[in-house]
Amino acid sequence: MNGEESVPLRFRERFFPRERASVRLARVFVGRALLDWGIVVRMDDVLLCASELAANAVRHGVPPGRGYGVRMWRERGGSLYVEVHDSGGGVPRLLREPGRDTDAEADGGWGLFLVRELSDRWGVAPRDSRKDPGKIVWCAFDLPAVAVPEAHLRGLPSGARTRVSSTRQ
In this protein, which residues make up the domain named Histidine kinase/HSP90-like ATPase (predicted)? Predict the structure, then answer.
């Protein structure tokens, strides 16, 4: 994390159970937020990345009996962030690279590759282990900036400030 703080222009979050069907629900949640915010630019990229991060949480990151959270926000400068919070250990890593894999037709292992290719930035950060074990896997999309009057920003929750990384991984 680079220590930059930003105040989100728009903010949403939701908790999902550890079920395969929840991946579709997470995608619908992200899609509705994008439509509510009037974002159609790169919508397919955002939805695919959100689905991949949610699927990874269900498959690899969430211990049985727990769930995962999806948090998203849009900054005044234009960037849109999608985070998936899970309580599992380990750090996700790219498993596949085109031209490097001998079995390019094999199922699985392409999710983070797609996130890396479709988003402008992505990364992994630890959660506050004293309160919440696990990790945050996030991706960011640089969208056209939006001018919003200050009056629209007053209703944001005080906890909506977050730290983000600006390095492409």
Answer: 17-124
Sign of CA dihedral 51, 53, 58, 60: positive
The residues of the chain scoring below 70 in pLDDT are 1-8, 96-108, 146-169
Domains of the chain (ranges plus CATH)? Answer: 5-163 (3.30.565.10)
User: How far, in Å, CA of 157 to CA of 155, rounded?
Assistant: 6
Nearest to 54 by CA among 69, 38, 74: 69
Q: Which two tokens stand for residue 37?
A: 């915010």
Residue 85: which H helix or E strand, with range? strand 79-86
Q: Are 80 and 39 in contact (CB under 8 A)?
A: yes
